[in-house]
Amino acid sequence: MNLPTRYWLLLIAACVFAACNQSGEKDVIAAKVGDKQLIWADISEIIPDNSSPEDSAELADQVIQSWIREQVILNEAELTLADDQKNFDQLIENYRKSLLTYTYEQEWVKQKLDTNVTQDEIETYYNENIQNFQLRDYILKVKFCAISIDTDTRQLKNLRKLFYSTKEEDITPWIAFCVNNGASYFFDEDKWLLWDDFVKQIPVKAFDREAFLKQTKEVEFELDNNLYLIRILDYQLSGSQSPLSFEKENIRNMILNRRKLDLLVRMREDLYNKALAGKKIEIYYTQP
Fold it and tell me: What pTM did the predictor assign?
């Protein structure tokens, strides 16, 4: 490998650093910008121990060049900006306070929050806020599979028989067939899919989604050397009432978020009252 002269210099510098490091010297300078210094000890922490000399030199060069460019900009900012433009003490203090408060509240919630949400709570929330649960997209319950059309004809015939069967005992053999023959499949009679998520898996061409859902129960087609089998089990149109089973997880998260807010309100009030009772609060003004 023909390395640029700069890399050879870095290799030599790295060897000097290694020798100094073995003798206990930790502050060998790698670069300077003004009164700022970059020492080799800081660079060595970034370079993996198992790197080749060439890779170490290249990585060291990247670190040094990046540090130099950063320091040049910082130096120019220090020289150019007015004192009030460089004073970030209040901003840093406000940020520190926000981080402290946020971290404490998150730890409090982690320790105190009851994450058990019952089905009764979910149903009650749904019924009390039913006007807020309107579908913005089409959803459907569906069973589908896709398999190569090069599959043996008798195998495809068996697949169709199992797929279109309404017998519960045929579900397991159908899934086993799909797994054994490399077919993709989906079936969950309790799960709603958004239309967009459905067509990402099955390339259905439906310019009128509402008409397709209303008029289609079963459909199969061939595309890109695959046979697709589809059975629509249920559907809900965009703009209609969103079913509870579709909103269940959203409602659970809403209930938990409300509990979090309630916990934080109570915690703040308790801390305030505790400070008052302990005479840790002193107010030096009188109300008019």
Answer: 0.69
Distance CA 144, CA 2 (A): 58
Q: Residue 23: which domain range?
A: 5-80
Q: Which ranges constitute the DSSP H helices of 50-146?
A: 53-80, 83-86, 89-112, 119-128
Domain boundary among 205, 220, 236: 236
CB 136 within 8 A of CB 238: yes
Q: Looking at residue 156, which CATH number applies to its domain?
A: 3.10.50
Closest CA to 229 of 201, 207, 209, 208: 201
What pairs with residue 223 in β-bridges?
Answer: 226
pLDDT in tens, 160-194: 999 999 999 999 999 999 999 999 999 998 999 99
| Residue at 13: amino acid letter | A
**Tokens coding 199:** 């067509």
Q: Any idea what DSSP says for residue 256?
A: H
The answer to whether residues 163 and 187 touch, using CB atoms and an 8 Å cutoff, is no
Asked whether residue 67 is domain-assigned, the answer is: yes
Token pair 């309404």 is at which residue? 166
Number of domains into which the chain is organized: 2
Choosing from 64, 80, 96, the residue where a domain stops is 80
Q: Give the pLDDT confidence of 110-169 residue by residue, as tens digits.
A: 999 999 999 999 999 999 999 999 999 999 999 999 999 888 888 999 999 999 999 999
Q: How far apart are CA 268 and CA 285, in angstroms?
A: 23
Query: Hey, what are 257's tokens?
Result: 């978020």
Q: For the packed helices 244-277 and 119-128, what is the interaxial angle rounded to 10 degrees?
A: 100
Residue 278 lies in a domain: no
Give the dihedral of Cα atoms 83, 84, 85, 89; nearest 10 deg: 100
Whether residue 281 is contained in a domain is answered as: no
Q: Which amino acid is at 278?
A: G
Average pLDDT, the chain: 87
